[in-house]
Design a protein that fits this description.
Layout: H1 6-39, H2 44-81, H3 86-91, H4 97-101, H5 104-124, H6 128-134, H7 149-158, H8 166-175, H9 181-195, H10 205-212, H11 224-236, H12 247-271, H13 278-287, E1 294-295, E2 307-310, E3 317-320, E4 329-334, E5 338-343, H14 359-364, H15 376-383, H16 385-389, H17 392-398, H18 418-422, H19 436-457
Antiparallel strand pairs: 1-4, 2-3, 4-5
Helix pairs in contact: 1-2, 5-7, 6-8, 9-11, 12-13, 13-19
């Protein structure tokens, strides 16, 4: 057994004192009653009343002392339940001048509230070191007279509950000091705990909307948090290990689709007015950024998948577009990580979407990039894991299992090769004498003009 804490010593002393007082009260009470019965010359009724008064006083004292004893017992039990967190509390909040100057009752209230908050953060997966550095040390002097103590503590804790809020970022940044693979994996698990990430990602808009509530409404697509997340994934899964089997690997891969859903919805919420489409909202947003924040020239080849329909002859194949709409999609990336895919008709293309989903989005939709650029790391983190970790509904659409009324025998949806993409006479990927690459570049050029239009209007 370890050395008892000061609180335990105080509790034991109080138990002895209470026990002594109870014994003293009853022994004196019995002695007094005996004297009343044996030696008092007053009438019988007067003596009985006196005895009853003394017994009642003794009873009330006993009840009061018993309540005090129970109170200290509860305090001791509470302390034992949170004893793992007491050291970091005492190192931080316990040393603040305001706490030291508080009354015993105020100290008890502060200690209980903070210890319960520490316990909740611990259950979310944060380490005690991170909680100390990223939460307790940021509280400052919690007895600030300008704001009620309980309210200040409540606000500080609530600020840790959404991904991207300042309180959450204090914890995240403190945890980022450890860049080992194990620490990075734990950090990703914390993120999954915040999101309540499901075992199987589904395309139900209501479910997606529910998952997105874990993110702060202020978390923009160029927030530094996204670079931190990319760095964390790179540290957690080096050398292609994200493409290995495992629950965290699968969730981390599928998180890319949820992040893209969060980012398109952020653009809609902040820049789309009534009757406007997604393309207009994105153009308005990009017009507020510096030109080097985004890139319209990243290859969109992988996001222009088509299937082919066999009409019975090898030379007689026709293109099957997603949603049966002949159009090309183009891509915009911000700091390489955030990715926005747009169809020619001005709609965001996402694997999952809180507003609605369509075949083109599932087959050719955007996904957040964990790599910093289009290199071998991009292949390892953003391309290779697709085959093993993609949700079934994406695999089903890409494998073209959805039945179309006009199809005879359709192939899987496939991206063009670089040669097919640039071939203006390709039977499948070209349209109206223009190659897939030219059609995509044309759509991107028109979008660039729209950005410039909104930039000039600012």
């Amino acid at each position: 057994m370890g050395t008892p804490s000061l609180f335990e010593i105080q509790t034991i002393m109080m138990l002895h004192i209470v026990s002594f007082l109870i014994d003293f009260v009853f022994s004196n009470c019995f002695a007094s009653v005996s004297a009343e019965l044996c030696y008092n010359n007053r009438s019988f009724h007067e003596r009985i009343r006196t005895i009853m008064k003394k017994y009642m006083i003794g009873a009330f004292l006993t009840i009061g002392l018993g309540a005090l004893l129970f109170f200290f017992y509860q305090e001791n039990q509470y302390t034992q339940q949170h004893e793992d967190f007491l050291p970091i509390f005492e190192k931080t909040v316990g040393q603040s001048p305001g706490y030291k100057a508080s009354s015993w009752r105020e100290k008890r209230s502060i200690r209980r509230q903070v210890l319960e908050d520490i316990e909740r953060l611990d259950k979310m997966g944060w380490s005690k070191t991170t909680i100390q550095k990223g939460y307790l040390e940021t509280l400052g002097d919690i007895s600030d007279n300008q704001e009620p103590m309980a309210q200040k503590l409540q606000e500080a804790y609530e600020d840790t509950l959404l991904i991207g809020q300042s309180g959450f970022m204090d914890l995240w940044n403190a945890d980022m000091e450890d860049v080992s693979p194990l620490a990075a994996q734990n950090r990703l698990q914390v993120l999954m705990n915040y999101i309540h990430f499901p075992k199987k990602l589904v395309q139900d808009p209501k479910e997606i909307e529910h998952l997105l509530r874990a993110f702060s409404p202020q978390l923009s697509p160029i927030d530094p948090f996204w670079q931190d997340l990319a760095d964390t994934v790179q540290a957690a899964f080096p050398l292609g290990t994200l493409a290995h089997d495992g629950k965290l690997q699968k969730q981390t891969h599928q998180l890319r689709y949820l992040i893209s859903a969060q980012q398109v919805q952020w653009v809609r919420d902040n820049f789309r007015s009534a009757q406007e489409d997604d393309r207009t909202a994105l153009a308005k947003y990009l017009a507020t950024l510096k030109e080097d924040d985004y890139n319209l020239n990243e290859s969109s080849r992988l996001h222009n998948k088509l299937a082919t329909i066999d009409n019975g002859k090898k030379s007689d194949q026709e293109a099957q577009y997603a949603d049966d709409i002949s159009q090309n999609n183009f891509k915009v990336v911000l700091h390489f990580h955030a990715e926005f895919n747009l169809s020619e008709n001005g709609k965001f293309l996402n694997k999952i979407d809180p507003e609605d989903t369509n075949e083109n989005g599932i087959v050719n939709g955007a996904s957040f990039n964990y790599a910093d650029k289009n290199d071998a790391v991009h292949q390892q983190l953003d391309v290779d894991p697709v085959k093993l970790h993609d949700p079934k509904f994406i695999v089903k659409e890409t494998d073209n299992e959805t039945v179309h009324a006009n199809e005879k025998e359709a192939s899987d949806f496939e991206s063009p090769s670089k040669k097919e993409e640039s071939d203006e006479n390709n039977d499948i990927y070209s349209r109206a004498g223009q190659s897939s690459e030219e059609l995509t570049e044309k759509a991107a050029a028109e979008f660039k003009s729209l950005i410039e239009q909104y930039r000039q209007e600012q």
